[in-house]
Amino acid sequence: MVEQLLRGLVLGLLFLVAVVSAATDSTVCAESIHLIESQSDADSLSQCTNTTISSVTIRNSALTSLRLSGVQRIETLQVSSCPALVDFSAPNLRWTRNITLSDLPVLTNLSIPVLETVLLGFNLNNAPNLQQPVWKIGGVDNNGDIGTNIYGDLSISSSGIQTLDNLNFGLIGKGGGITITSNTNLTLVNLATLNTSSSIEVSNNSPSIVVRMQSLTNAHTLELQNVAEIDVPKLSTLDGGLTLTGNSFNNFTAPALTAIAGDVLIANNPLLDDISLPLLNDIGGGLENGSFSISNNTDLRIVSLETLTYVDGNTTISGDLQSVSLPKLANIQGGFHINTTSSKFNCEFFDKLSQSSAANRNSDYSCRASSPESNKDTAVHFKPSCHGGWNCLPKASRAVLIIVFVVFGSIPFLFAFKKLWQWWRPAKPVPVEPIRMDEVRTERPQHEVGDGVEPLPEYRPVGKPGEVPPAYSTDVAGRVQRLWSRVKPSWMG
Fold this sequence. Notes:
Blueprint: H1 2-30, E1 33-36, H2 39-43, E2 52-58, E3 65-67, E4 73-80, E5 87-89, E6 95-102, E7 109-111, E8 117-127, E9 148-150, E10 153-159, E11 163-164, E12 167-168, E13 177-181, E14 188-190, E15 196-203, E16 210-212, E17 218-225, E18 229-231, E19 237-238, E20 242-245, E21 251-253, E22 259-260, E23 264-267, E24 274-276, E25 282-283, E26 292-295, E27 302-304, E28 310-311, E29 315-319, E30 323-325, E31 336-340, H3 348-356, E32 365-369, H4 395-409, H5 411-424, H6 476-487
Parallel strand pairs: 1-2, 2-4, 3-5, 4-6, 5-7, 6-8, 8-9, 8-10, 9-12, 10-13, 11-14, 13-15, 14-16, 15-17, 16-18, 17-19, 17-20, 19-22, 20-23, 21-24, 22-25, 23-26, 25-28, 26-29, 27-30, 29-31, 31-32
């Protein structure tokens, strides 16, 4: 009897412990924010297998290893400022909106082997000893997507990762902004399922890095720097700009690219000897003018864009170029400058284009060839046929002749205008102070008889009776006729 009572008491205690533990676990899982500073803190979440936890932050300067078991869904996971953390794993984590791992200088092992979905962003920054994270490679999720899929932004910088080829972007292949920079050991980026992206930047990684995006058709911007090889066979449009600077590849080929809405900058690529854009039709036309610049590519000798018809902004092409072929270019919309060190460069096509393009009347244009030792232009320029006409004269001579014609041709007209003005607006009479006749000297000078001087007639202030003064003409038409006879040019007869 006593034995049965003891057994019942033990079972009751165990049931009570289970109830209390379940209640505690439920309370922990219901909390929205979790700060984990030890393994015991992480273990407290191990029963939250069917709960989506809002936020988990792992941060402790003394933490060296952490295993986050049991949890399958976390809205935001952040592991940061753990200078001693070497190992981190989340063996059951399948879904997250955002995951950030930053400032982990000695992190060596990162294992998230069943992670299927990163909805908004995956950020890995400053983990220089992390060489190869463990992602989900095979398997299919509920949406039919294979492996680990990034549906938002992807940023990996200053890590020790060597290859990046196990990340996917869902069935439709749509990613956000992709930034892969300053990973000095990274030699391969293979984003095989990426179809569209808001922006792509791959820069300052290993000098031998190969970038492959075989499914990419559209992006806002594409920026490549210090890349050894690039493969974008299906890229057809860029809604923003294209930047290729400081790369070591020999050629850049985008066989399907038809339009770039922003700026194009191809500069400082010392080994680049071929730019193949056989279908490129437009540069610019987006929210801002699209400028086109090619410069300081040491091995580049020929630029040939056979289908390019429109450049919305300024065009600047320079280097040791032997030929620039843009046969379909319809007009020069902005400033246009070609400057090459190759002697006898032919500028005739661009000279004619600059003179015939109505859109270029207010724009800058130059095309010249000069050696580093001399500033003399040695390019071949277009000379319009003149057949002895006005166009045969140099511009300076034509300017001088125009000035001479204007100055001397206007003299007869100015003289005639002056005469007409004087007739039409005669000078105002000068006021004369009235003379008092009683003060006028009326004595006549006396002359000796026989001195040869005829005496003046006698002055009379009043005429004699019946004497009539001289008449004045009132014939206006006659006055005009006499005036015209004075100013009439001789050639009018």
